[in-house]
Amino acid sequence: MKLKQSQAGFSVPHLLLGLVAVAIVGFAGWRVYEARKEANQSYDNAANANEVTKQDAKKKEEPKKEAYKVPDGFTVYENKEYGFFMAYPQKWGQLSPTADVSLVFVSTPAAYDEKLASGARVGSNLYVRIEKKAGFKVGAYKYGPFISPEKSGNDIVWRVVEKDSGVEKYKVGDVYPLKSAQNKRGTKVYDLSFFDEGYHTGWLLETSKAFVHLYTPSVGMEDMSVPTAADKKEFTELTEKVFNSFMVQ
């Protein structure tokens, strides 16, 4: 018995087989598309997860900035023009403008004098000097070399531009190892403290427009002897509060 053929010459089974083949190819193509879609989605998810991990790691690396509250007995000095904020003990006196070649120079009265419970004496004044970045230089310590900032990538290298007037430990052109630390507000602060007939606490900060150089009143003994660790403790607790108040823009 002969099977009937279509007008085009194909039998019904042939047509059915063709449809099945088309369906199989279509299904295979759909599965390939879905597989690629799933692979791309998995890649995107992995990339997003990796980015989140990087952001989380960056957040952990960044120092946590604490909400700032002015300590009791402190007053505030702020210079919005050059982006600098600090708090300091009211008993040191009021910072007021003083004639100087700097952009801004403010200081408290030099008559401040206090005797700590330990027997150490705190005297002199607090001063804040704000200077232009161009050509800026600062004494690393009393009778020490003058140093100037030099850009090195995203950081700063401090280079000696004038040798020290006493012992010639550093020569012009040497890199000076100026130490720095971040306070609780995330502000980078360079340490310019030194000892000479007393402890002199000094700091240096960089704002977007200028450098800020300041010294607190010094602590020492009336007989010029070196204050002990106990002598320094009370005053250090005070200066740490000043250190942690710094904020720059």
- Beta-strand percentage? 25-35%
Largest sheet features: 7 strands, antiparallel
Radius of gyration from CA coordinates: 35 Å
Give the helix proportion (percent range): 25-40%
Question: How many domains make up the coordinates?
Answer: 2
Please give the oligomerization state of what you see.
single chain
Can you identify the CATH class of the largest domain? Alpha Beta
Number of helices: 2
What is the arithmetic mean of pLDDT?
78
E-strand count: 19
Shape: globular
Structural class: alpha+beta
- CATH third-tier fold name of the largest domain: Protein Transport Mog1p, Chain A
Strand order of the largest sheet: 3-4-7-17-16-13-12
**CA-CA gap between termini:** 98 Å
* CATH architecture heading of the largest domain: 3-Layer(aba) Sandwich
Question: Spans of 5+ residues with little confidence (pLDDT < 50)?
Answer: 1-8
The topology string of helices and strands comes to HEEEEEEEEEEEEEEEEEEHE
Topology of helices and strands:
Blueprint: H1 12-61, E1 74-79, E2 84-89, E3 96-97, E4 104-107, E5 113-115, E6 121-123, E7 127-132, E8 138-139, E9 146-152, E10 155-162, E11 175-176, E12 180-182, E13 188-191, E14 194-195, E15 199-200, E16 202-206, E17 210-215, E18 218-220, H2 229-243, E19 247-248
Antiparallel strand pairs: 1-2, 2-19, 3-4, 4-7, 5-6, 6-18, 7-17, 8-9, 9-10, 10-11, 12-13, 13-16, 14-15, 16-17
Explain the overall architecture:
By secondary structure, this protein is of the alpha+beta class. The protein has helices spanning 12-61, 229-243, and strands at residues 74-79, 84-89, 96-97, 104-107, 113-115, 121-123, 127-132, 138-139, 146-152, 155-162, 175-176, 180-182, 188-191, 194-195, 199-200, 202-206, 210-215, 218-220, 247-248. It has two domains: 1-62; 74-248, 3-Layer(aba) Sandwich (Protein Transport Mog1p, Chain A). The strands form five sheets. It has a seven-stranded antiparallel sheet with strand order 3-4-7-17-16-13-12, with no helix packed on it. It has a four-stranded antiparallel sheet with strand order 8-9-10-11, with no helix packed on it. Strands 1-2-19 form a three-stranded antiparallel sheet. The longest helix is centred in the N-terminal third of the chain and has 50 residues, at 12-61.
